[in-house]
Amino acid sequence: MTATVILQAGQSSMLSTLVPMVLIMVVFYFFMIRPQVKKAKDHKKLVADLKKGDKIVTTAGIHGRIVDMNELTFLIEVEGGTKIRFDKSAISLDATKASTELPKA
C-alpha cells in the first residue's frame, strides 16, 4: 500500500514537471522559430523576384539600381555611375515596390 502511494506521488510529480516544459517548447516555437523561418522564406522570395532595373537597398544602407545579376551576386549602380557587386544575401529591401506601396499624403 505504501509503495502504491509513493509511485502515484512520483508520477504526478513527473507529470507536473513535464507539462510546463512542453508548454515552454510550444511557446518558444511559435514566438521564436516560426517567425524566423517565415522571414527567411520571405527574403528568399524577395531576392528571387528581383530583376534588372529594380531599385534596391542593401543591409549596409546603400541605395542603388540592379544593372547585372548572376547566380550569387548583383551588380548595383549607385549615385555617380559607380558600380558595386553585392552578394544576394546583402539585399535588404526592394525600393521599387516599397515606394509604390507607401500611402500618398
TrEMBL record:
InterPro entries: Preprotein_translocase_YajC. Keywords: Cell membrane, Membrane, Protein transport, Translocation, Transmembrane, Transmembrane helix, Transport. Belongs to the YajC family. The keyword Transmembrane helix applies. GO terms for biological process: protein transport. The chain crosses the membrane at residues 12-31. The lineage of its organism: Bacteria, Pseudomonadati, Bacteroidota, Sphingobacteriia, Sphingobacteriales. It comes from the Bacteria. This is Sec translocon accessory complex subunit YajC. It comes from Pedobacter antarcticus 4BY. It is a single-pass membrane protein. It holds the Pfam family YajC. It is found in: Cell membrane.
